[in-house]
Structure formats: C-alpha cells, structure tokens
Design a protein that fits this description.
single chain; 122 residues; mainly alpha; 3-stranded antiparallel β-sheet; elongated
Length: 122
C-alpha cells in the first residue's frame, strides 16, 4: 500500500470538501483573486446567501483550503497556497501515479508551519 491510513483520511476530507459545486466556485474565486476577500465580496461574486457562504468557508477552512484573517469586525479569506501546491500531488498519489509513501500537507488555519505574510496596511 502506497498511502497510509492517516493520509487517506486527509485526502478523503479534501475531496469531500470539493464535492460541492459552490465550494469549488469559492475556491476558484479565492485562488484567482490572489488576495484576501471579505465574505460580502464572496457573496456578491457567487450569488449565494451569506449564511451558506459562511458555512462553505468554515468547511473549507477546516480542511485547510482557505485561511481567515480577522480585520476589525470582518474576516477576510484567502486560498491557502500550500493546498494549491499539495492538492495535485495528493490526487496523483491516490491514483497511483506517484511512487511516494509520504503524505502531502495542507494545514488548516491555525496550524501553520511557516510565518504568515503581513498584509500591507491600507
């Protein structure tokens, strides 16, 4: 077996998080924007209600695809670049296209192993 059980569980959660079209659209929006976006901006862009967008963002943050940064009373969301790099590798591992036995990482919010980049004050 090329994938250990723990990695398989992680990858299953990733694929489950992307099993909803709205979450895929939100991920695409955030990855394409390349900057933190407020919930209000996301709601306008994806034409889904605020509570539904917030629910999707919570699920995406739990698996590490998005990261939230509080700014005053608002929260700004951005796509986790480590996930953007790790996800294709995970898919290739699952499909047996890579001979590695090591898992790939996409750390949820609050579990960073690298310093967060500071946003320019505006």
């Amino acid at each position: 077996m090329k994938i250990d059980r723990s990695s398989a569980q992680t990858y299953a959660r990733w694929f489950q998080a992307l099993a909803d079209p709205s979450r895929v659209v939100i991920c695409n929006l955030l990855a394409d924007a390349g900057r933190p976006i407020s919930v209000g901006e996301i709601v306008q862009a994806v034409e889904i209600g605020q509570s539904t967008v917030s629910h999707h963002l919570k699920l995406l943050a739990e698996v590490g695809f998005v990261q939230a940064t509080p700014k005053g009373t608002a929260r700004f969301y951005r796509f986790n670049q480590r996930c953007l790099e790790a996800f294709p590798t995970a898919a290739e591992l699952v499909m047996g296209r890579l001979p590695r036995t090591e898992g790939v990482q996409c750390l949820p919010s609050g579990e960073r192993d690298e310093p967060e980049q500071e946003e320019a004050a505006g």
